[in-house]
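Protein in question passed on here:
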Amino acid sequence: MEAMRKVLERLPRAETGVAPELLAWPLAAGPGLAARVECLRLRQGTLALRTGDAQARMQIESVAGDLRRELNRMLGGEKVLRLVFV
């Protein structure tokens, strides 16, 4: 994961057109959840997510702390403070 964090830090948003948290989401959530839950944006520490799948939402809510820690580890700091569904 340390290598992934370093890669994400080096990817300037302007060059890729994609925010690092959007790149980190499928790695932190895993392919199954990432396919069912869309990561929209990170603003002021809040990671906005969207899903129409009630089971996926419950699963995310049950592991939110672990996901937040994993995302922060990949992003290199306390950037994700909370996960919210919009």
Remarks:
- The chain has one domain: 2-12+19-85.
- The longest helix spans residues 20-36.
- The two ends are 28 Å apart (CA to CA).
- The beta strands are 38-43, 46-50, 82-85.
